[in-house]
Q: What sequence folds into this?
């Protein structure tokens, strides 16, 4: 009987202390620096609890024919490990994930699975609006012409 009470008390404690899931959306612009600087644009949608969050992001990098730099489209599912609250308006995070990519340059086309990891920060501007700064390294499949690919971006993030 004591173990049943303990389990009920633990369940009650979890139910009372649980925080609602928070979500955010980011629209970003930046640069893919491998093998040459090219513009990247994208959107990320995430949700999570205190320290762990999950995110899906789509990004599109333009090509540069003269530098032999391919276009790159990525769709990644990521896990973010972040501080539970912002410190002095800054919430740092680390992220890792996997998904699909498509690289194109002239007649070369490669579609496969890729991995990514990186770090960044969400910086409070006003209310639920934040500035997001992010750096990622993408490990693309063996058919990719440029791997690993490096990306840096800045974006507007809305927390809801």
A:
């Amino acid at each position: 009987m004591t173990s049943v009470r303990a389990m009920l008390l633990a369940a009650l404690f979890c139910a009372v202390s649980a925080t609602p899931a928070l979500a955010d959306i980011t629209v970003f612009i930046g640069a893919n620096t491998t093998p040459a600087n090219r513009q990247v644009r994208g959107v990320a949608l995430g949700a999570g609890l205190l320290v762990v969050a999950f995110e899906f992001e789509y990004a599109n990098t333009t090509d540069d024919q003269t530098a032999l730099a391919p276009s790159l489209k990525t769709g990644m599912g990521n896990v973010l490990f972040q501080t539970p609250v912002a410190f002095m308006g800054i919430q740092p995070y680390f992220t890792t994930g996997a998904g699909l990519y498509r690289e194109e340059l002239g007649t070369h086309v490669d579609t496969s699975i890729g991995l990514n990891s990186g770090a960044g920060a969400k910086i409070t501007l006003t209310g639920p609006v934040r500035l997001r700064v992010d750096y990622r390294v993408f490990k693309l499949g063996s058919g990719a012409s440029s791997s690993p690919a490096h990306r840096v971006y800045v974006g507007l993030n809305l927390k809801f």
